Amino acid sequence: MNDIAHNIQHIRARMQKACVQSGRNPDEVKLLLATKTVEPERILEAFAAGETLMGENKVQELKAKFEALKAVPHETHFIGHLQTNKVKEVVQYANCLQSLDRMELAEKLHQRLEATDKTLDVLVQVNTSFEESKFGIAPDAALAFAQSLKSLERLRIRGLMTIGLFSGDEKAVRRCFQTLRQLQQDFLSKGIAAHELSMGMSNDLEWAIAEGATIIRVGTAIFGQRIYPDSHYWNEKNPEA
Ligand SMILES: *Cc1c(COP(=O)(O)O)cnc(C)c1O
């Protein structure tokens, strides 16, 4: 068995255990491969091991890998910060945008969806950790934002996404996930079908599953350490991001 298949087996076991421990059905939790910087050949190894869902952070990688991987059935979510001038590629190549966090972006996406007569699944990204370096709408603004999307009927709100606090402090990290789950309840009570909770990564997936995650996003624990620090992807001050 290759490294990637082995690592996936390990993650699947962690997910299974976390579900059992929190009394959840393992079928309720999907594994998304966070594939930033990972070459298509290695993603194919993960697909060969049975995986079918991946997430990209950059439009350039989204597009390049779409071409390289299109022969193998799979779904791709966009999980990175999206600039308004790059909505076209996301509409064309992604099945879901997990990082919807502002009205200007929603409007640009909607224009593109109208022009191409398409719809797009979206998750509202919330900044639950209040870290400046992370994108996402403030928790207290999320519901009003989602409600203001109603007129943009080509955007289909499927749930919420967050990046938890980077910390080994279980309580503090779980508080982020609880915030997202509480918001999900608010969305549902207003008739917004926000059934997906995308939260949890390599280091905190057990806590996220315990708090109700339906999608966990795992990179490092499957593909190994990346060359770029995550600030390259998450830092607002980085013009490339
Ligand atoms: C990179 C990334 C992940 C995966 O993080 P790991 O710690 O490598 O598992 C999850 N979500 C987002 C938005 C990411 O950019």
List key phrases describing it.
16% strand; binds pyridoxal-5'-phosphate; alpha/beta; 241 residues; eight-stranded parallel sheet
Explain what the structure shows.
This protein has 241 residues and is an alpha/beta fold. 43% of the residues lie in helices and 16% in strands. It has ten helices and eight strands. It has helices at 3-21, 40-48, 59-69, 87-93, 103-116, 139-148, 170-189, 205-210, 220-223, 231-234, and strands at 30-34, 53-56, 75-78, 96-100, 120-125, 155-161, 196-198, 215-218. An eight-stranded parallel β-sheet has the order 7-6-5-4-3-2-1-8. α6 (139-148) packs parallel to α7. The mean pLDDT is 94. Bound molecules: pyridoxal-5'-phosphate. Pyridoxal-5'-phosphate (PLP) binds at residues 34, 36, 57, 79, 163, 201-202, 217-221, 233. Pyridoxal-5'-phosphate is lined by residues 34, 36, 57, 79, 163, 201-202, 217-221, 233.
Task: Spell out the blueprint of helices and strands.
Elements: H1 3-21, E1 30-34, H2 40-48, E2 53-56, H3 59-69, E3 75-78, H4 87-93, E4 96-100, H5 103-116, E5 120-125, H6 139-148, E6 155-161, H7 170-189, E7 196-198, H8 205-210, E8 215-218, H9 220-223, H10 231-234
Parallel strand pairs: 1-2, 1-8, 2-3, 3-4, 4-5, 5-6, 6-7
Helix pairs in contact: 6-7
The chain binds pyridoxal-5'-phosphate.
